Amino acid sequence: MVGALLLIGSDLIARTALPITVPVGVVTAVIGGPFLVYLLVRANLK
């Protein structure tokens, strides 16, 4: 469910919020990459 929402949100940002056309995968990577790093760091601290 979260993955689908991330993809829909990324598509919305890629189509409307940015002044140039950007592939959805780029927006998804920009949002999902730092979140993945956060999850990895949090898992290693416990």
UniProtKB/TrEMBL annotation:
Any Pfam family matching the protein: FecCD
Subcellular localization: Cell membrane
Signal peptide: none
Transmembrane feature ranges: 20-41
InterPro entries linked to this entry: ABC_BtuC-like, ABC_transptr_permease_BtuC
Topology class, membrane: Multi-pass membrane protein
This protein's name: Iron ABC transporter
Organism listed in the record: Streptomyces alboflavus
